Amino acid sequence: MNPAAYLRDRPGLNLILIIAWSTMIFYGSSLTQESLPEVADDYSNWMHMAEYCVLGFLAHPYVRSPNAVLVATAACGLYGASDEFHQMFIPGRGASLADLAWDLSGSFIGAFTAKVWGRL
Fold first, then answer.
1. Contact 50/106 with Cβ under 8 angstroms?
2. Among 41, 59, 79, 105, which residue's CB has the most CB atoms within a 10 Å radius?
3. Is 36 exposed, middle or buried (0-12, 13-18, 19+ CB in 10 A)?
4. How much is the pLDDT for 71?
């Protein structure tokens, strides 16, 4: 089964998954620094990339545009920017342009993967 094509043909389910995944990202960003596992510091960049890679993969099939990869990446990037802003209000956390760059990288990889996989 092709998950990208499956999601493209089911926009309602796709939207639910996008909202659910975005909520999980928001929850993770709401945790204070003390409540995060120690391993989170070691793999923070890769965690940002991985979570936004999934978001980009989910966002791409929902976007109906010839430039769906760029639109999905931009939308995920805006969410990433709002998430970094949100972290400024969490004790022990802060906003980081480097984290946003990892978010954008992951979003692009996920959206591009969905595009390629959706064609198979």
1. yes
2. 59
3. middle
4. 98
